[in-house]
Write a structure and sequence with these properties.
Blueprint (H helix, E strand, L loop, with lengths): L8 H8 L10 E5 L4 E2 L4 E2 H4 L4 E4 L27 E4 L12 H4 L4 E5 L10 H14 L5 E5 L38 H12 L6 E5 L8 E4 L3 E2 L25 H10 L19 E4 L4 H8 L3 H4 L2 E8 L11 E8 L7 H15 L18 H6 L2 H8 L5 H18 L8
Helix pairs in contact: 4-5, 6-9, 9-11
């Protein structure tokens, strides 16, 4: 994919929504602050009538850090005619909507900026909503406002292996690769067909490219006549950061591998200007920094590791001076985010006596370690903990799964 013919799907939808939504329909919206029109200078919920907004992790304005419950919705109530519903509370059940949250809706609009990795929880929340719709046999018109996947703009790519079922959690749905290679609407469509049991709901696609028409995609494909929108303002689709520690496309590029740092006692650099690119801990000394940064693997994987010192302002080692590194991508063709981070963790586990896996509750789960939920594959977990596999064997193992996945997902593509 490339930027040719890009259009803001919100503006395209607003130009055509009266064809899809009757004036009497009750409408729900799953979105956050990315759901904003630069042409109209308003959020989507200010442009059309919305009855309920479902709040994702981090809150509507991405104001909350990771794993902080949205337990107080009083702030949002100055939009007095909208009901705000949290999909991220203080227990696992709070992640799923109730029947009463959905049963009085006619329309559900989904407008989410994903970043291409299965750990990113927004589309897991959508998965849980779809489950509720199917379990209770609700019939809704579901409208998908699609957005680009920031790490597959030029060519379809993916990383990793399918998540094994026993490791399924809020940071991963079984069967999905670490980096899935789909747009938000494509992955939602994948989820819908995966769990659907002859549900009578209909799915509509609002594409982000003008060469792909607005269309009904389920249960039967149908192209819709539309009003063209020609006054599109040129903008970067990442102008609005989708979550507190996802400020740039470069962050998204490293995230597939570097999210694994959440499963360790290292800081992911939360609150710095380069989260996930920057990582480390107070117990990292200069000798270890030098050893890790000079490993020969990095050149083969297209990166430079730069030694540095930083102070995280959230989560692990908050306000403590940390030694660590920043990942600099020098060759995107060679770069494999997951392989880089697997090697990093393997080397740190072998050489740093104070390095350890994070052993607390992670996203309301305690059956396995956080690193196991994130890695989600017995072979890769064994690689991190034992000496059973060489780096070359693991790299080939990943490549074999990636090749198979790219063949499997072709039928879900909306864009060539």
């Amino acid at each position: 994919m490339n930027h040719k013919n890009f259009i803001n799907s919100i503006d395209r939808f607003v130009s055509n929504y009266k064809k899809l939504i009757s004036s009497k329909a009750r409408v729900g919206l799953i979105a956050n602050q990315c759901s904003f029109s630069f042409y109209h200078k308003k959020y989507l919920f200010e442009l059309i009538k919305i009855d309920k907004i479902f709040l994702l992790e981090h809150g509507f304005f991405s104001e909350l850090q990771d794993q902080i419950p949205i337990s107080n919705i009083e702030f949002y109530r100055y939009f007095s005619d909208i009901q705000w519903i949290s999909l991220y509370g203080n227990n696992f059940e709070s992640l799923k909507p109730s029947l009463s949250d959905l049963e009085d809706l006619d329309i559900l609009i989904i407008d989410i900026q994903d970043i291409g990795s299965r750990y990113y929880t927004f589309l897991t929340s959508v998965y849980y909503v779809l489950q509720t719709i199917i379990i209770h046999r609700l019939t809704l018109k579901i409208i998908l406002l699609d957005r680009p996947n920031p790490i597959i703009l030029k060519k379809r790519r993916c990383e990793g292996t399918p998540l094994q079922e026993k490791y399924e959690s809020f940071v991963g749905i079984s069967g999905i690769l670490h980096q899935h290679g789909l747009t938000p609407a494509e992955l939602i469509y994948y989820y819908w067909l995966k769990i659907n049991q002859n549900n009578k709901s209909s799915l509509y696609l609002i594409p982000f490219r003008t060469d792909v028409p607005i269309q009904k995609i389920y249960p039967k494909k149908e192209i819709l006549q539309e009003i063209s929108f020609s006054n599109q303002l040129q903008q970067d689709f990442f102008d609005i950061y989708p979550s507190p520690n996802m400020p740039t496309i470069k962050t998204a590029m490293v995230y597939t591998g570097q999210c694994l740092i959440e499963g360790t006692n290292l800081s992911e650099g939360r609150g710095t200007t380069k989260p996930f690119e920057i990582f480390g801990a107070p117990f990292i000394d200069y000798k270890l920094q030098k050893f890790i940064s000079e490993l020969t693997y990095w050149n083969r994987l297209g990166i430079v590791l730069r030694n540095l010192r930083f102070v995280p302002v959230h989560s692990k080692h908050k306000y403590m001076e940390c030694n660590g590194w920043q990942i600099h991508i020098r060759d995107t063709k060679k770069y494999h985010s997951l392989m880089v981070s697997l090697i990093l963790l393997k080397e740190l586990k072998k050489t740093c006596v104070d390095f350890d896996w994070y052993r607390g509750i992670y996203e309301f789960k305690i059956d396995y370690l956080a690193i196991e939920y994130l890695v989600g594959d017995e072979v890769l977990i064994s690689f991190l903990n034992e000496d059973r596999y060489s780096y070359e064997e693991i790299y080939q193992y990943l490549k074999n799964h990636e090749k198979k996945w790219l063949q499997e997902i072709k039928k879900f593509y909306f864009y060539k």
